[in-house]
Amino acid sequence: MNKVGFFRSIQLKFIIIYILLLLLAVQVIGSFFTQKLEENLLNNFKGSINERVELLSYNLEQAFDRERSEEGDGPTLEGEIQQIVQDINTDNIATTVNVISNQSRIIGTNKLNQQEQLGRKVTQPLVQQALFFDSPQKKELWDPEAESQVYVHVEPLIDADGIAVGVIYFQSSLEEVYDQVEDINRIFLQGSILAISISAIIGILVARTITKPIMEMREQARIMANGDFTQKVNVFGKDEIGQLAETFNDLNSRLKHSYATIEEERRKLSSVLSNMSDGVIATDNSGSITLMNEAAGRLIGENPEEVIGDYLLDVLQLEGKIIDLTELQDSGSMIIDFSDDSPFLVRANFSTVSDDEDEITGFITVISDVTEQEKVEQERRDFVSNVSHELRTPLTTMKSYIEALTDGAWEDKEIAPRFLHVAQNETDRMIRMVNDLLQLSKMDSDELPLHKERADFVGYFHQVIDRFEMNRPEQITLIREIPKGQSLVWMDKDKMTQVLDNIISNAIKYSPEGGDIRMKLDIKRHYLLVSVEDQGMGIAYDKLEKIFERFYRADRARTRKLGGTGLGLAITKELVEAHHGKIWAKSKEGKGTTILFTLPLMSEKRRDIR
Questions:
Q1: Which of 168, 215, 311, 358 has the most CB atoms in a 10 Å sphere around its CB?
Q2: What is the β-pairing status of strands 477-481 and 516-523?
Q3: Is pLDDT above 80 for 321?
Q4: How far apart are CA 387 and CA 442, in angstroms?
Q5: What is the C-alpha separation between 264 and 277, in angstroms, rounded?
Q6: Could you read off the pLDDT of 218-275 as tens digits, one per residue?
Q7: What is the DSSP letter of 492?
Q8: Is 441 strand, coil or helix?
């Protein structure tokens, strides 16, 4: 947050507003004061002139009315008027007093240096109006000779008969009045400047008292924006700003609690997202990715940080399946195939994020690896299909033969026994299949117990081979490669006998006439390796891993002919793994097949205990 300069601060604005208000008040007061002062001085000045004019008018009217002797013993009218005029105290050298007769001639003046003006005729309009209308004339005029404003008072002189015998022309300069007004205005201006200066200083102090708490709250807001809620704003009073500071501190406490709660929820959400096995992808309403956890990145093979901002449909490779994002809301869930060299299926569940007005603000996509799940589902479907297929064949055969017997073949002593023998063989085959299925089911649900005991596998292996030697076809040769000594293992003899019976029986079944079956035992450091090799037709490389799957047959026609159920090697694998061993096969087409499995040897410590 940038620091606010003084010339842009609220403090300067307070000062300017304070000074402007003061200037406005001073201006209003000064204008009113000046106007009233000027008006008062002018009224006083004019009142003083009017009083003098009244006194002078009275004396002059007495002079005009006085009777004078014809011999000229007393003073003349002009002389008496001149004496009266000169006795007037004007206190202003710029004051002119003239007495003008009704013939518009000057008969007296107060100016000693203007005696030559006596007898001169006056043509001024104010004088003529006063003589003509017998009424006084008062007016402010501009005197071009004195270059100043003057006040002119023309007062008519009325005799006893009510006739105007002359006028008094009184003219006085107003400069003295205006000079006084100017002097007072100057003093008022100086006082105003001093008052404004003092008020500006006080305004700065007052503004600081107002802005200081605001500046503190601004600084605290900046600190709060950085996530620090430990500091408080000082409260300087109980006024509005003080209440604002208290409210700000309360807001700080509430934000601190809310921030702590949000941070705790964020950590929980981050921990949940980080530790989820499912991937989570969040987008905005336009489909741009805003969040992706590590699990989602691993599932789709992308760096979560690098795909931020990418389009969801492009990342999930759905641009050809879904055109518009709004279709995601209706699709709900779908399987996305990310298979490349190996099968890889991902299930994506879509949901929308809405605001208070039910407007879609984004999408949440949860993805999970369902490759194994789909594989198990496919195996289940294949298993049901295979079981149905395997049972349908013997059932169809039995039905055909039973229908033939029902139709009368049972009376034929040669055909009936053969039909019954076929039905019996198919029944036995279905019983073996069902028993194998039950055994596999028990092993899948861990309901098939193993009764393990310590046994010498070398001697045990010889006993199993001896049993097959007694019943082997004459054209098959069993070759033993078994070392001497003891190899102690922890096993269930019955279950291991079933394992070896399945492996050796298959080797005998698929061996050609004159073929050899090589049974070998290698004793390693921690385990023993058993291998049974035949010289049969072999198995293709791409089918080698499938021979341990349920109902899988490399040669279905031959297997059915030999009475196999397709479950023997599947049971064998389960039993070997139950003994903590491993089983696999090696084969080349036309060169035979080798089945190998391992069993862990008993440790020296366990041997001592036993």
A1: 168
A2: parallel
A3: no
A4: 17
A5: 22
A6: 777 888 778 777 778 777 777 777 788 888 888 888 888 888 888 888 888 878 777 7
A7: -
A8: helix
Asked if residues 536 and 518 have their Cβ atoms less than 8 Å apart, the reply is no
Residues 332, 350: Cα–Cα separation, whole Å: 5
Strand order in the sheet with 345-354: 289-292, 279-284, 360-369, 345-354, 333-337
Checking if the pLDDT of 179 tops 70, the result is: yes
Q: What is the pLDDT of residue 93?
A: 58
Amino acid 262 reads I
Q: What residues does 195 pair with on adjacent strands? A: none
Q: Are 150 and 174 in contact (CB under 8 A)?
A: yes
Which residues of 7-147 form beta strands (DSSP E)? 96-101, 106-109, 137-143
Contacts of 537 (CB under 8 A, 6+ apart): 510, 555, 589, 590
What counts of helices (H) and strands (E) characterise the chain? 15, 17
Residues 6+ apart with CB under 8 A from 149: 140, 141, 142, 143, 173, 174, 175, 178
Q: What DSSP string describes 353-403?
A: EE-TT--EEEEEEEEEE-HHHHHHHHHHHHHHHHHHHHHHHHHHHHHHHHH
pLDDT digits (tens, 9 = 90+) for 273-295: 777 778 888 888 888 888 888 88
Please check whether residue 339 is in contact with residue 331, taking contact to mean a CB–CB distance below 8 angstroms: no
Q: Environment class of residue 120 by beta-carbon count within 10 Å: exposed (0-12), middle (13-18) or buried (19+)? A: middle
Closest by CA position to 566, among listed 595, 558, 476, 447: 558
pLDDT band of residue 455 (cuts 50, 70, 90) is: very high
pLDDT one-digit tens code per residue, 377-422: 766 776 666 666 666 767 777 788 788 778 777 777 777 887 787 7
Query: Which residues, in sequence order, are bridge partners of residue 105?
Result: 121
